[in-house]
């Protein structure tokens, strides 16, 4: 692994920029005008976001805060892994859809094993992915439509120990789907009939029918056809656009 280190000092501030083959990882905004204790008292954040404008906007917002400091920004999962090998932030604000060798589930596990808390920051509001991320152990799931102040408030709550936080827009229609129901929805979305699902799950067609009726009632849908459309719309497919 080859690195190019660049040191820039201006008005008592410096950053080290590390360039890897494709992704970038930047350590930034160490304000030398602050006393060491003041720097340490701030909540340290790593931003994992491959959209440059979003990452810059977040970094700029936190730079104006008295209780946050951004220790680095990453544009890929590989770059995040590299950053965590060199530093240990209190929190990682992480987009779900980023390139990298690790799948998202593996990346979340790696970050958690590093003792770092995770707040997912995503435009993807499909319940399947929200629940998967929470089940993988992230502390919060925020939509990118959230105002900066809300993001800051949630980061403080997560740092204080809260878990299971999601954007209000997600909780307004929050329906808990069990693991069994997930499997059935995925198989329905694949186009399988009740009898075929029953064979896959080693049960009876009548059991699958009752389970589907329960899901239909839970989601306030009218019939099996609407359930299949709902499953496809909300990401319950084998051909998912994100690697878990």
Q: State Rg.
A: 21 Å
CATH topology group of the largest domain: Rossmann fold
The CATH class of the largest domain is Alpha Beta
The dominant shape is elongated
The CATH architecture of the largest domain can be named as 3-Layer(aba) Sandwich
Q: Helix-strand pattern, N to C?
A: EEEHEHEHEHEHEHEHHHHH
Reading side by side through the largest sheet, how are the strands ordered? 1-2-3-5-4-6-7-8-9
- Mean pLDDT across every amino acid position: 81
Assembly type of the shown chains? single chain
Number of domains: 2
CATH superfamily of the largest domain: Response regulator
Distance between the first and last residues' Cα: 26 Å
**Uncertain parts:** 1-23, 29-35, 239-243
Which structural class matches the secondary elements?
A: alpha/beta
* Number of separate helices: 11
User: What is the share of helical residues?
Assistant: 40-55%
Number of strands: 9
DSSP strand content: 15-25%
**Major beta sheet summary:** 9 strands, mixed
């Amino acid at each position: 692994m080859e690195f190019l280190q660049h040191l820039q000092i201006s008005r008592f501030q410096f950053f080290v920029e590390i360039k890897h083959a494709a992704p970038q990882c930047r350590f930034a905004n160490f304000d030398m005008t602050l006393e060491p204790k003041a720097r340490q008292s701030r909540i340290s954040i790593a931003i994992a976001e491959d959209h440059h404008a979003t990452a810059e906007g977040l970094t700029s917002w936190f730079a104006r805060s008295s209780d946050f400091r951004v220790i680095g920004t990453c544009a890929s999962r590989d770059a995040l892994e590299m950053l965590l090998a060199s530093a240990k932030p209190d929190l990682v604000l992480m987009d779900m859809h980023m390139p990298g060798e690790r799948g998202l589930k593996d990346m979340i596990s790696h970050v958690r094993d590093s003792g770092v808390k995770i707040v997912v920051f995503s435009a993807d509001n499909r319940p399947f992915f929200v629940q998967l991320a929470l089940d993988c152990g992230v502390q919060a799931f925020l939509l990118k439509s959230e105002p900066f102040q809300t993001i800051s408030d949630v980061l403080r709550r997560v740092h204080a120990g809260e878990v299971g936080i999601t954007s209000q827009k997600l909780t307004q229609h929050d329906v808990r789907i069990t693991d069994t129901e997930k499997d059935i929805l995925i198989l329905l979305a694949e186009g399988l009939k009740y009898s075929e699902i029953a064979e896959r799950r080693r049960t009876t067609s009548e059991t699958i029918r009752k389970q589907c009726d329960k899901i239909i009632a839970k989601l306030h849908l009218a019939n099996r056809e609407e359930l299949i459309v709902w499953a496809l719309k909300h990401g319950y497919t084998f051909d998912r656009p994100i690697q878990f």
